[in-house]
């Protein structure tokens, strides 16, 4: 497989973005920097398969656009709004892959999503269309990750330049022991077996920014690999933000000001 430029890589981060917040922004900025990606598209789900009662799509799209305005490497991907029915990730990735078969897809998810991957539609076939990059952003109240303190950045409002963060990161995790340390031993056995079999193997002789190992992986295969990147963990969730707004609070430190203003202007998440 010939060496790929960053333009040959379609890096995607999906979600409901209801609303988008700093817990999306900072880890994605770090992921872009660590992997030296010139572009990551944020893909709002039209009809989420695992979530009910989400806000109207045009509001979530508008707020996602506001998040993307903060970093020129980000843009909105409306692939799931081009298709009818439930927004199954695997079907969307297949659709994207069929449109440009030679393009490498990097699908970025958080650690909490990886742990529940077996709940996804046709989850066993996900690797047929993409590589999976996992950001070590824990689920809220996840003591197994938070207790180590190794990945946590407890200052939500602290502003770190991506290079400052990336310089503190480590090489790729490729062993099953390291996988268990990160993911935990309590996941579904069938899921664990599949994920361990997909762990990316790459030669890397240095510690720090692991772009060389990333390039080694994607130059050798267009899909089917899994690896983790260590990034700052912000314990922020859209559901907690919505709950705060319902209670009359204004979580200014959890979202960019433009999104806070949008929510206030359109009176989103207020109790009827």
Q: Indicate the overall shape.
A: globular
Biggest sheet details: 6 strands, parallel
The Cα radius of gyration reads 18 Å
CATH class: Alpha Beta
The helix/strand order is EHEHEHEHEHHHHHEHH
Q: Assign the CATH topology.
A: Rossmann fold
**Cα distance, first to last residue?**
56 Å
Uncertain stretches of 5 or more adjacent residues: 138-173, 204-209
* CATH homologous superfamily grouping: HUPs
Helix content: 25-40%
Mean pLDDT: 80
Q: Compute the number of structural domains.
A: 1
Quaternary structure: single chain
Widest beta sheet: strand line-up? 3-2-1-4-5-6
Explain this structure to me?
The protein starts with 8 loop residues before the first strand and ends in a 7-residue tail after the last helix. It has 272 residues and is α/β, with parallel strands linked by helices. Residues 138-173 and 204-209 have low confidence and may be disordered. The chain has one domain (6-265): 3-Layer(aba) Sandwich (Rossmann fold). The chain is 35% helix and 11% strand. The protein has a six-stranded parallel beta sheet with strand order 3-2-1-4-5-6, sandwiched between helices. The chain is globular and about 50 Å long. The chain has helices at residues 22-34, 57-68, 89-99, 111-115, 143-146, 162-166, 176-183, 189-198, 211-220, 238-246, 257-265, and strands at 9-15, 40-44, 74-76, 104-110, 131-135, 226-229. The chain contains eleven helices and six strands.
């Amino acid at each position: 497989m010939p060496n790929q430029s960053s333009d040959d890589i379609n890096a995607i981060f999906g979600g409901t973005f209801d609303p988008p917040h700093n817990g999306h922004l900072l880890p994605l900025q770090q992921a872009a920097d660590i992997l030296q990606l010139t572009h990551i598209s944020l893909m709002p789900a039209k009809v989420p398969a695992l979530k009910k009662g989400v806000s109207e799509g045009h509001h979530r799209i508008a707020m996602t656009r506001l998040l993307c305005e903060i970093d020129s490497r980000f843009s909105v991907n409306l692939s799931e709004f081009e298709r009818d029915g439930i927004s199954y990730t695997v079907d969307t990735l297949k659709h994207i892959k069929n449109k440009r078969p030679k393009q490498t897809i990097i699908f970025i998810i958080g650690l909490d999503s990886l742990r529940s991957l077996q709940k996804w539609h046709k989850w066993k076939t996900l690797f047929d269309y993409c590589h999976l990059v996992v950001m070590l952003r824990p689920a809220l109240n996840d003591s197994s990750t938070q207790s180590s303190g190794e990945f946590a950045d407890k200052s939500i409002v602290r502003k770190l330049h991506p290079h400052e963060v990336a310089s503190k990161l480590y090489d790729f995790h490729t062993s099953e022991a390291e996988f268990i340390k990160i993911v935990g031993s309590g996941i579904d056995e069938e899921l664990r077996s599949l994920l361990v079999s997909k762990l990316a193997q790459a030669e890397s002789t240095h510690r720090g920014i692991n772009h060389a190992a990333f390039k080694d992986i994607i130059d050798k295969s267009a899909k089917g690999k899994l690896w983790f990147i260590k990034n700052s963990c912000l314990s922020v969730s859209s559901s907690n933000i919505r709950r705060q707004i319902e209670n009359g609070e204004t979580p200014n430190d959890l979202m960019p000001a433009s999104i806070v203003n949008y929510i206030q202007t359109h009176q989103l998440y207020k109790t009827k």
